[in-house]
# Entry
Amino acid sequence: MSVKFIHTADWQIGKPFARIEDDNKRFLVQNQRIKTIESIAAEVEKTNASFVVVAGDLFDSNTADKPTVSAACSAIGKIKVPVIAIPGNHDHGGPGSVWQQDYFLQEKEQLAPNLTVLLEYEPFEIDDVVIFPCPLLRRHESQDCTAWLRDDHIFQSFQGKTRLVLAHGSVHGFTSESDGEEGPTESNRISIENLPMSEIDYCALGDWHGGKKISEKVWYSGTPELDRFPKSGSHNPGNILVVEASRNKEPVVEIVQSSKLQWSSMSYHFAKDDDLDLFQKELNQLIESRANEDLLRLILSGSLGIEAYSKLVNILDTLEARLLRLKLSNQTMIAPTDAEIEGLTQRSNDPVLSMVANQLVNKLKNETDPDPVTATALRELYGAINQRGAV
# Structure
């Protein structure tokens, strides 16, 4: 008999997103992680899934504060099926962790009675399914948390039942280091190759934030809500997995997009002033008419005339307001056009201004690494003249 369930992980509720400076925008990004749980609830109803598994890191910290705990439990309680979770490295199940705190236990009982957190290495039965949990009880575990499953006698008591392994950690080739999480680490390793896979019908993994198929039976779901700028290669975050598994059959896995916020990267090189219109067009295609839904890593280079650069500054100011976060690397240089240079330096009726402008233009041309203060001064001078109607 087959069972359908949702595999998810790495919710990291309470993630601080400290690099978002605006308090209101930071709250919107944090709160979206709660809303994504509501999206999972909707997918449960749509697919008639029997339960949800969370393969670690439900919380971003094992000392989550009370408002975070309440918000998470309230959202989980709206999922109309059991939710089975294990601790990961962020919310590990060691002494004093969130899972043992009185406030969490209170809120779980009152708001999320459907939530079960598995803190022991022992089978957990739900209907015709047996879950073999491999919780992390320390942030950095030197021992393989799945080692207890290498004895195939463990599975003999559950003949005919679908067997699911629930674990959080790194397998060969896919580590927290590759995911940009915590730097090099040899901890929390999972040796899939040492498990009796003939006794296992599906292995639900967490830790790698991108969705990834390791083998027919072994998958990372990835984080359901994007939390960083895109990576190249096989990184595929922002999804949940709808899984149909049964004893002695290969599981059927459907990838369902769940992320609502858009994290994008864009690079642009300005070769001439007319490129500014093309840049604006590409931006409009990327962001469309959205506000407070996008985070953008923007890398700019090349050069623009003074007037074109001033227009670029206005565009960037608008982006700062419209985006949840703009991570900007602007290496664009000001290179005055011939007409702009002439209008600044050849002013017979204002010789002092012409002299200052000449000095700034010459300094800008002669610097191998142009000083942004010089460029700004020239731009401000040009703007002041325009306001006077002198150019």
Observations:
- The two ends are 81 Å apart (CA to CA).
